[in-house]
Design goal:
The chain is of the alpha+beta class. It contains four helices and nine strands, in the order H-H-E-H-E-E-E-E-E-E-E-H-E. An eight-stranded antiparallel β-barrel has the order 1-2-3-4-5-6-7-8. Strand 4 and strand 5 (95-102) form a beta hairpin. It has a single domain, classed as Lipocalin, CATH 2.40.128.20.
């Protein structure tokens, strides 16, 4: 047990260092980023996600910003029999493009790594839970179609955040929840 502690401490230090190095879009513009986004691809080490990823369809989100600069997100996930809706609020964390949120049993950290505002965004999210922290990288698009070149760019980022291509789900299109998110 005592021999494992230095390894555990080193792993935690590496994880914290990796999270600290996740970049944020320079000059992030909340007004340009606000609006509707489709989740085109997701990669994560979350155990719940890994069990469900092969049956998932593309969720849709509407993002807005409060006068204080906090990020409000309304999500709708297509499930076989309904749309699951969720509302999240992330507080601005010092700089635009970096946000934190608290859930009942978790702390979330969201960073907009890269966006062109009109076609795509790459978002990095960490969830700190009591059991196990998880990392997620998401490719958001304004339209449901994603170009092979953009998908390739996204896939190249996967190892840089400590994830693997085996954890990747390219999400099939779905219009099932379009009305639920308005």
């Amino acid at each position: 047990m005592t021999a494992a502690l230095p390894c555990l401490a080193l792993a935690l230090l590496c994880a914290l260092r990796a999270a600290a190095e996740v970049p944020v879009q320079p000059g992030f513009d909340t007004q340009k980023f606000a609006g509707k986004w489709h989740f085109a691809a997701t990669v994560s080490n979350c155990s719940v996600y890994l069990k469900m990823k092969d049956g998932m369809k593309s969720p849709i989100a509407t993002i807005s910003f409060t006068p204080e600069g906090n990020l409000a997100m309304k999500l709708a996930w297509p499930l076989p029999d309904r749309c699951q809706r969720l509302e999240l609020l992330f507080q601005r964390s010092g700089q635009a493009g970096h946000y934190t949120g608290m859930g009942a049993q978790e702390k979330r950290e969201l960073r907009v790594m890269e966006t062109d505002y009109s076609h795509y965004a790459i978002v990095h999210e960490t969830q700190h839970r009591e059991e196990q922290p998880s990392t997620m990288l998401q490719l958001l698009t304004r339209e449901q179609d994603v170009s092979p070149l953009l998908l390739q760019k996204f896939e190249e980022l996967i190892p840089a955040v400590g994830l693997t291509k085996a954890m990747l789900a390219v999400l099939p299109k779905s219009d099932q929840c379009t009305a639920a998110i308005r």
